[in-house]
Amino acid sequence: MFAVLSAGIAPTLALMSFFYLKDRFDSEPLTTVFRTFLYGALLVFPIMFIQYAFMEEGIGQTPLIRSFLLTGLMEEFFKWFIFLYTVYKYTDFDSLYDGIIYGVAISLGFATVENLLYLLAHGVEYAFSRAIFPVSSHALFGVIMGYYLGKAKFLTKNVKRSQFSALLIPLSLHGFYDFILETVPSWIYVMTPFMILLWMFALRKVKLANQQEYKNVVVLAEKKSQIQ
Questions:
Q1: Which DSSP letter does residue 28 get?
Q2: Percent of the chain, pLDDT > 90?
Q3: Enzyme class, one word (predicted)?
């Protein structure tokens, strides 16, 4: 049991630390990040129940529907919904990069519980591949979702478009991820370049968010100097 818990939680700590430490200016309170993580963790059970009900009834069990609707849309929608109606109202959510932190936290909360349940059912020998693929992908979907929700709150007049992008892009990527697993026999040869591109795309959002924070710091410093 201890081995399963350690193997299930370790990738979460590594990924959360990585993205948390990427914030170069004003780190979020750990208590708020952890609370967001718990929101994501609690989402697993109602989503699994709904997915199980569809499976038992034999509804939507083609690879395309299962990948893009029952998994991609359902999981990313609930994370997006919880983000909009909880995190979006945090007083600590005051910069673009904060969106990434909270997006990663809610996604890793979900991924951690899902990962622990999988390892308990199938064995700790799957821990490494689970860390590399599903847990990492959830974190990266969270980066993308958080970036666009941060952009919606702080950077753009097209708020609805950015909010919609925060749902559409992660669910599309998530659906494609599952579709590869379901339909490609030697999936590792397709999944590996997909994950590399996903990392590149997500890290690009991290870079853009930090650049925007740097601009905000410079503008604030200039205003202070003018006042003095």
A1: P
A2: 74
A3: hydrolase
